[in-house]
Amino acid sequence: MASNSKDHDLNCLTINELEAIAHDKMDKQTRDYYNEGADSGSTLRENISAFSKYRIRPRVLRDVSGVDTSVNIFGHKNSIPMGVAPTAMQCLAHSDGETGTAHACRDMNVAMGLSSFATKSLEEVAEASRPNPNVLQLYLFEDREHSLKLINRAKKAGFKAVFLTVDTPFLGRRNLELRNQFKLPPHFQVANFSQQEEAALQDEAVDGESKTSSRNLDPPNPGHYENGKWVSPSGRVTFHSHAANPTLNWERDIAWLKEACKPEMEVWVKGIATGEDAILAVHHGVDGVVVSNHGGRQLNGALATLDALPEVVEAVQGKIPVHVDGGIRHGTDVFKALALGADFCWVGRPALWGLAYKGEEGVKLMLKILSDEIRLCMGLAGVVNVKEISKEYLAKIDKSGFVAKL
Ligand SMILES: Cc1cc2nc3c(=O)[nH]c(=O)nc-3n(C[C@H](O)[C@H](O)[C@H](O)COP(=O)(O)O)c2cc1C
Ligand SMILES: CC(C)CC(=O)C(=O)O
């Protein structure tokens, strides 16, 4: 486990340093879009600070010479208990975009989630990933035909699962995005939608005078909600309105999605934040849940994901896997999430910062940093295999600063 300076990028040894470097590499619109949370951003900040409520209880004299950080996920051996979460429009950070992320994940043997609103097509990303397993993040449109096409393409391209994002009945209010009048520059494309589909989406969104612009990402500002969609004063329904679908519900949509995805792809729900919904997820037969609040970009004031995790773990009682994302910035964060019962973690923004720093190489660097930290943390905590990580290794600090075993 010894390392020396030639194994490292001495300009960037931590995810916090990567964030600082990326800050200066991105234009303001991109930086604001990637980095902000909804409203005051308190949930975004608490996703990160929640990890500092826990301390690790290290065990010693256990022969940790053979630390194994790998886990099985989607029938594949992942080198670490962590993957790259789906985030939209990665070409804004670097022209390598989602295929750069896919190459980095493949080289590091790490699973990747691809956003429905990627700037590279799912076929290109599947090709760049092979043989690494991928997950397609899905926003289920009101018109099922568009979603069905995407699902069938994902099956054909070899995706292992869909993550249905369920924390987006409406889009959260992101003030900088509104103020900047966020637009995807015209030389980039939302690559998973063809011209014809775009036209069809426009027809679908016709609402009196309203039309969508699925490529321009026109700003939903100033505007208002109408039938659950952002409508600008001109009456134009924006691209963003397609991600949000307030009609989704357990009974109708999960059954539909399971039918559409079988037998090739598993169906997971991403955006679970309570034990009650975790029980419903099990009841409706989903294959797994991701405890997530969309990186604090949706309901500000919602629980930090690390704080929501224990109730979800307790509710599912091991019947389905529980993954978590939000605020993970260090290998010890992954260890703490696993100790609280998560089976696997995902990171969102760190991959975007890696892309902004050096494209594909930057994402690889981000994964190397976190990989090294996970391995070191396990070794120093006296754990050889990921399965051994349990709440026995954690203590929690209460409000008065008292540290107690869990
Ligand atoms: C810029 C950006 C775009 C995102 N796009 C999507 C998306 O298209 N679909 C989705 O389900 N989640 C999306 N997410 C949420 C991530 O999948 C993930 O839940 C979140 O980033 C985890 O928090 P972290 O960034 O603190 O690691 C996005 C997050 C960011 C920061
Ligand atoms: C196109 C957006 C709706 C993608 C997203 O989920 C996000 O920005 O958080």
Automatic annotation (TrEMBL):
Residues 201-230 are annotated as: Disordered. CDD domains: alpha_hydroxyacid_oxid_FMN. Residues 7-399 form the FMN hydroxy acid dehydrogenase domain. SUPFAM superfamilies: FMN-linked oxidoreductases. It comes from the Eukaryota. The active site is at 294 (proton acceptor). Signal peptide: none annotated. Glyoxylate binds at residues 33, 139, 174, 294, 297. Pfam families: FMN_dh. Keywords: Flavoprotein, FMN, Oxidoreductase. Gene3D superfamilies: Aldolase class I (3.20.20.70). One of its GO terms (cellular component) is cytoplasm. FMN binds at residues 86-88, 115, 137, 165, 270, 292, 325-329, 348-349. One of its GO terms (molecular function) is oxidoreductase activity. PANTHER family: 2-HYDROXYACID OXIDASE 2, S -2-HYDROXY-ACID OXIDASE-RELATED. Belongs to the FMN-dependent alpha-hydroxy acid dehydrogenase family. This is Oxidase FUB9.
